[in-house]
Amino acid sequence: MNTGSSIRCLTPKDLPLLEAFLDRHRSSSLILRANLFHSGLEDGPEPFQGLYMGAFSGTALTDVAAHYWNGNIILQAPARPVEMALAVARESGRPVNGLLGPWPQVRAAEPELDLDRARLGKVVPEYLYRLDLADVEVPESLSSGRVTHRCAIDSDLPTLVPWRREFDLYAMGFPEHSIDDAANRDALAAMIEANNLWVLEEAGRLVSMTSFNATLPDMVQVGGVFTPVQWRGRGHGRAVVAGSLLDARAAGVVEAILFTEADNHPAQRAYEALGFERIGDYGMVMLDPVRGNDEG
């Protein structure tokens, strides 16, 4: 029996082993699992595609890293996060635009990667939350009809693109000059086409938005929650997230996760009021998506 250890690229024959490994870490691996569901192990330039590498102890898969079409490395590497991050970056040859995964793994790997640190956004721990959608608590403002939610449509884009700019500035920590409104418009339009973007209305005006940034038939990840400053403090973020989860539940989804900054106490209170429970720590290191291309 082979009892040695190795790191290698994963191939289609490894798919059952990979899926079983990620399912054992399902709540902290949703982006990996969703990308795998949508594009399999095919590596390429299209959305969801990426290079997957695994670490083995004998025949047992112990760690996974993927480097995706958009430059993001995502880890589920509890034993060897640094080795896995370096190996997948080297093997893929892609630039590294971001690093995501359980916080201890991100914290260990980030200093060792060859990143343009002038492009760093926020590098902070996040709390990972989970909710069984059978238990979602619906805010009174939504259940009473005082506010209403719906999937976003193309005519919402003139409002949502500036909102996304504010989100990038304050939630992602990107400098003003780096934000690409045209790219954000394309990204939001793709979410609209996929029915993964929601808005909240009050008295006929848009007041909040949310999205799913990873989806499986039975599980979704909430992200991109934003309420403009003038509408904050009224529970709109909580209401729009609740609305999106009710729609997901009606479509057969049974579980949701999200992560939010460890020091973002208002967001934590809002999510906990919906029934989310903290289950761990997550981390996200995102690089300025434009500066590296536009500046010498």
Would you kindly provide a written description of the structure presented here, covering whatever features stand out?
This protein is an alpha+beta fold. The protein folds into 2 domains: 5-115, Aminopeptidase (3-Layer(aba) Sandwich), CATH 3.40.630; 131-287, Gcn5-related N-acetyltransferase (GNAT) (Aminopeptidase, 3-Layer(aba) Sandwich). 33% of the residues lie in helices and 31% in strands. The protein is built from 10 helices and 12 strands. Strands 1-2-3-4-5-12-6-11-10-9-8-7 form a 12-stranded mixed sheet, sandwiched between helices. It is globular and about 65 Å long. The N and C termini lie far apart (52 Å). Mean pLDDT is 93; it is low at 292-296.
Provide a brief overview of the structure.
By secondary structure, the protein is an alpha+beta fold. The protein has two domains: 111 residues, Aminopeptidase, CATH 3.40.630; 157 residues, Gcn5-related N-acetyltransferase (GNAT) (Aminopeptidase). The chain contains ten helices and twelve strands.
The computed structural class is alpha+beta
Strand content: 25-35%
Mean pLDDT: 93
List the domain count as a whole number. Answer: 2
* Strands in their spatial order, largest beta sheet: 1-2-3-4-5-12-6-11-10-9-8-7
CATH class of the largest domain: Alpha Beta
Number of helices: 10
The N- to C-terminal Cα distance equals 52 Å
Number of strands: 12
Please identify which CATH superfamily of the largest domain we are dealing with: Gcn5-related N-acetyltransferase (GNAT)
What oligomeric state do these chains adopt?
A: single chain
If you compute it from the alpha carbons, what radius of gyration comes out, rounded to the nearest whole angstrom? Answer: 19 Å
What is the ordering of alpha helices and beta strands?
Answer: EHHEEEHEHEHEHHEEEHEHEH
Q: Could you say which overall geometry the principal axes of the C-alpha atoms support?
A: globular
CATH topology of the largest domain: Aminopeptidase
| Low-pLDDT ranges | 292-296
Q: Kindly state the percentage of residues in helix.
A: 25-40%
**CATH architectural category of the largest domain:** 3-Layer(aba) Sandwich
Largest sheet, in brief, is:
12 strands, mixed
